[in-house]
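Appendix B, Record 12. Input sequence as logged:
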Amino acid sequence: MGERRVQLIKAGTLVELVLTAALVILVWVFISWAKRGKRFYIRKLPAIDAIEDAVGRCAEMGRPVHFCTGQRNYISSVEAPQTVAALACLGHTAKSCAKHDVPLMVVVSKAESLPLHIAMLREIYETQGKPFDIGMIHYFSEYYKSFLMNYIGDVKKFKPGAVMLIGPTVFEYAMIPDVARSVDAMSIGGSSLGDYYVYSPMYDHALVAEELFAASAYLTREPVQIASIQAEDVYKVLAMGIAVVGTLLLIAGINIVPMLGM
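Logged structural output:
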């Protein structure tokens, strides 16, 4: 019988292994630097800064703020990271509303995330020394068409001064800006699902793609979170550099695929 060879790395996965290891190392190094006191730059997110302006607008107009964390605001699926990011934006909005005594209406469509919304809002209002009214949370059907009709009807009925749709959304992301304009409301959006890149310009302000996931770090200015974002940005530049070099080599007639064992 011939000697049996043990293959530690599956054929065709060497590049993925190297890039994954590089990402882990970069995140570890940047977080270590942050813990030692190094501070990293994070650019301005106009959509987040616009939340304060929107709340101020509502205070001047005597109208409420209308906030929805997305029709797909699950906490137990692939949409969970977007839901968590949306909750960070909601928390910031709720603090500002409580501070300026502006009514806040929050739309929720998933039963599994409802307790999380209630607990977070109750804690924020109690911390601000303001009474928490569970009636501010509007729970609509999980079924898409029913949810959308209720959502649009809610905006039309209460005529808020600002409509914010931030979180995992699909088709409703394209419809809400027009609904907001119909009641003379400022619109702020944010999503990384579906054709968000097409519909984001319809909003007065919007968090586009990865800006949504950076919102929490931007709001808290937590050094470790900002460091991890910086590490991921460096990783993206590294990955793009490898792609460019590989393309140039192929154009030059040098095939490096066999060298990588792929």
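The chain has a mean pLDDT of 86.
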